[in-house]
Amino acid sequence: MNLNIFPRALLVPVVAVLLVSACSTVKKVAPGQDKVDYKKSKVTESLEVPPDLSSNTINDAPDSLDAATYSEYGDSRIDVRNSAVLPAQSNMRVERDGDQQWLVVRGTPAQVWPRVKEFWLQEGFLIRMEDPRVGILETNWAENRADIPQGPIRNLLGKVLDSVYSSATRDQFRVRLENGTQPDTTEVFLTHRGMQEVMVGGAADATPVWEPRATDPELEAEMLKRLMVYMGVEEQKAQTMLAQQSDEALRAQLVSDASGTMLLVYEDFSRAWRRTGIALDRVGFAVEDRNRSEGTYYVRYSDPLAGEDKGMLSKLAFWSSDDSAAAKQYHIKLVASGATTQVIVDDAQGVRDTTATGKRILTLLEEQLR
Predict the structure, then answer these.
(1) What is the pLDDT of residues 266-323, one digit of tens each?
(2) Which residues are within 8 A (CB) of 225 and not within 5 positions of it... i.e. 6 or more apart?
(3) Mean pLDDT over residues 119-128, rounded?
(4) Co-location of 222 and 300 in the same domain
(5) CB 147, CB 218: distance < 8 Å
(6) How confident is the model over 126-155, as a mean pLDDT?
């Protein structure tokens, strides 16, 4: 919890007055209530990050409210300008694989896209990036005020001075739309990335910085449920449809042969394709294009460990800048092999990448897919 700068002369008497009435005014909150509370987003200052990370790796909040408007893409695959009304969603369903789950929605991506965007704006987010050409929409970093620790003083102060508190976490969401396997259906994938504020340095010169935190599948499920409700599904039904089912079977592992390292996914091509797309979203790769018929995702990645002998994979590797001049294009290629799918990395020329960077990319994917 952070207590922002506030005039002490004003704060002290307010606290004193509120404490007098603490016994009669504290409101109890039922367990599990208010798990998500994203207040209306606004442009914020740049996030201060550790010295071994650059500020542009964090994808700071946009510089202006223009980020919340539709972008102009002349060759868009999703034409949002002339799309028909989205059909009723009485037959919406949830597909899942382990802790990954996605929606299958009636309607074309062009019909679904505007509703998805409206949902995030209603939830209080700004849109950091949207690309109808590849069906990807990404929110800005936002504060979940439900993460602020609760207590008598916090509850009392929050009634009149809520803005002096902020949580030590920030969340960002990405939505990806793909054509469904059935005609006039769209598959909607929603993924989460998070940061947390930590103190670095000694006791005398400690400085708060932002570092990555693990993807939160429960938060993904909560926002997916809210999206379902926004699109017309009754809340209790949406909750039931998203009920998690545990499955601890090994789904993917790295293997090596004479040609190099590959990731072996123990699922057919269709499911491996979906799960790999979700993994790329969670890790934060810049997906520039994809071709399902060829089984290829075209991504851009800047390896922070290139040229260094680190031995072990850095847990911060996925925070490399996909916008930097050093970023290179790679082809994540999926090859069906019966009931399993092979995932390999090619360079921009389509040649098998056997470098340490190629192996690191596969290792990042394995962490999400296994």
Answers:
(1) 999 998 999 999 999 988 888 999 999 999 999 998 776 555 444 333 333 334 444 4
(2) 235, 238, 239, 242
(3) 92
(4) no
(5) no
(6) 77
**Cα–Cα nearest to 165, from 151, 148, 147:** 148
Q: Which residues contact 247 (CB under 8 A, 6 or more apart)?
A: 98
How many other β-carbons are positioned within 10 Å of the β-carbon of residue 335? 13
Residues 95 and 199 reside in one and the same domain: yes
Q: For residues 75, 80, 86 and 92, what is the CA-based torsion angle, rounded to 10 degrees?
A: 50
Residue 52 amino acid letter: D
CATH number, domain containing residue 224: 3.30.530.50
pLDDT at position 306? 59
**DSSP code per residue over 287-322:** EEEEEGGGTEEEEEE--TTTT---SSPPTTGGGS-S
- Token pair in block for residue 235: 């809340």
Whole-number Cα distances in Å, 259 to 93, 141, 272, 303: 41, 41, 21, 22
